[in-house]
Design a protein that fits this description.
There is one protein chain. By secondary structure, the protein is α/β, with parallel strands linked by helices. It contains 2 helices and 3 strands. It has a 3-stranded parallel sheet with strand order 1-2-3.
């Protein structure tokens, strides 16, 4: 099993899965299974749902009899990042 890991701001599943994961790392013999793992840190323009759907479609499109590809998108963004205000300290 081969796992290719990408941060969300560098991911291009339509290119990464066929050209890198499958093209460079899977051979359909000894290495026939691969995972395209995306860590979403909140820097992507896409929502986690859009990113996950796009990666799933690309993995399915590039899966065959000898090569199996799956995608996983993990939300690794800080839980307070969307709703928090910057923490600023001042010395009075």
């Amino acid at each position: 099993m081969v796992i290719e890991v990408k941060p969300d701001n560098k991911t291009k599943p339509e290119k990464d899965i066929p050209d890198q994961l499958i093209g460079k790392y899977l051979d359909g013999e000894d290495r026939g299974c691969g995972i395209y793992l995306v860590g979403r840190f909140g820097k992507s323009r896409s929502s986690i749902g859009e990113l996950s759907e796009k990666a799933d479609q690309c993995a399915s499109k590039n899966t065959g009899e000898k090569i199996k590809a799956k995608s996983i998108v993990l939300d690794l963004s800080h839980p307070l990042a969307a709703n928090s205000t910057p923490c600023v300290s001042s010395i009075a």
